[in-house]
Amino acid sequence: MNREQAEETNLLAIEIGLRLGRHLQKLRSGCGSKEAHDITRRFADVMANILIEIQNPLYEEYPDLKPQELGGPFKVPSNIVPPAGLGCGR
C-alpha cells in the first residue's frame, strides 16, 4: 500500500470508529444494563479489530499517520472529528 492509500485507509478507519462509537451511544441509551453490556462488548470487539488488523500495521509502516490521540503526530482533519461530546466513550 502506498502512502496515499495508507492515509485514505487510516482516515476511513478513524471515521468508522467514531461513527460506531456514536451509534453505540444511541443504542445503549435505549437498553437495559445487560443488553447494553453485550452490545458494548460486540462493538468493542469490532473496533479493536479495526485498530489491530488495519490501523496498527499502517502505523508501523507510516508512523506519521498515527493520530495525536494515540500518541502520534497526525492531526485528524476537523471534518472527521466528531462534535464535542459525540465521540466514543464520551
Quickly describe the structure:
The protein has 90 residues and is mainly alpha-helical. It is built from 2 helices and no strands.
Description:
This protein has 90 residues and is mainly α. It has two helices and no strands. α1 packs antiparallel against α2. The longest helix has 29 residues. It is elongated.
| Order of helical and strand elements | HH
**What is the residue-averaged pLDDT?**
87
Class by SSE composition: mainly alpha
N- to C-terminal distance:
33 Å
What share of the residues lie within helices?
55-70%
Shape estimate = elongated
User: What does the main sheet amount to?
Assistant: none
Output the number of helix runs.
2
Residue ranges: pLDDT <50 for 5 or more in a row?
83-90
The fraction of residues assigned to DSSP E strands is: under 5%
Using the CA coordinates, give the radius of gyration.
14 Å
The number of E-state strands comes to 0
Layout of secondary structure:
Layout: H1 3-29, H2 33-61
Helix pairs in contact: 1-2
Keywords:
mainly alpha; single chain; 62% helix; disordered C terminus; 2 helices; 90 residues
